[in-house]
């Protein structure tokens, strides 16, 4: 059966209206994607910025209804019939507010998270590269902050390429390896981080980049995919839900029913078993 894109949209609206995304209806594991978490007055219109108090509300909701786990653990158990749904938190780009705003709340609620950084952009270095590869300018983590995060039991530092390079835009293995493996080496040499987690910048990936990441990392996340895990996912293509969306929408995207509808509509981005 293929309900199609329009049928999926109609059924999604019906599911949200009927509250079929309640916690007792949701058991599949999911990964949430964040970028910047900042004071409400500093949130930028049209971006995925999340206000600090909204992030606190997210943590209240998540810790009250689910088990917030480290990223690799979402693949160990899809939760069906065994305890509560597993949810992992990820943060892209290495914004400085991860250190100033997010980290204190992780400790307050005692939940783990992964922050994906670009080593060449730390300390606000290479502003031209940052704007060219991300489309905007933001304050990045400092080297001292990354050193502290590397020793934090609730935080894992992951690889987001050296310069936020879109490794899905071409098939040049040398350039992709320099960005992927080079960043991994930078994190090891500068901070003593044995990095085994990767995130594709801009959600861009292809056969070449995936093969290189597979050779060098244990797990990798895609960009926003609007669904939970739907079975035995490829560990190099773990889907995520954008937590920068309105609460009602990302709660729906995490739900089992939404995942099943996406399969019926053939909107999942890759095969699942």
Task: Give structural notes.
Strand 5, helix 3 and strand 6 (113-117) form a beta-alpha-beta unit. The protein is α/β, with parallel strands linked by helices and 273 residues long. Helix 1 (4-17) packs antiparallel against helix 9 and helix 2 runs parallel beside helix 3 (97-109). The chain contains nine helices and ten strands. The chain has helices spanning 4-17, 52-65, 97-109, 127-134, 143-150, 173-191, 207-216, 247-253, 256-264, and strands spanning 30-34, 37-38, 50-51, 67-68, 86-91, 113-117, 155-159, 197-199, 219-224, 238-242. The strands form two sheets. Strands 1, 4, 5, 6, 7, 8, 9 and 10 form an eight-stranded parallel beta sheet that branches. A two-stranded parallel ribbon has the order 2-3. Helices cover 37% and strands 15% of the residues. The longest helix has 19 residues, at 173-191. The mean pLDDT is 89. It has one domain (29-241): TIM Barrel (Alpha-Beta Barrel), CATH 3.20.20.370.
Short description:
With 273 residues, the protein is of the alpha/beta class. The protein has nine helices and ten strands.
Considering the chains and any ligands shown, give keywords for the structure.
single chain, about 270 residues, alpha/beta, globular
Please give the structural blueprint:
Layout: H1 4-17, E1 30-34, E2 37-38, E3 50-51, H2 52-65, E4 67-68, E5 86-91, H3 97-109, E6 113-117, H4 127-134, H5 143-150, E7 155-159, H6 173-191, E8 197-199, H7 207-216, E9 219-224, E10 238-242, H8 247-253, H9 256-264
Parallel strand pairs: 1-5, 1-10, 2-3, 4-5, 5-6, 6-7, 8-9, 9-10
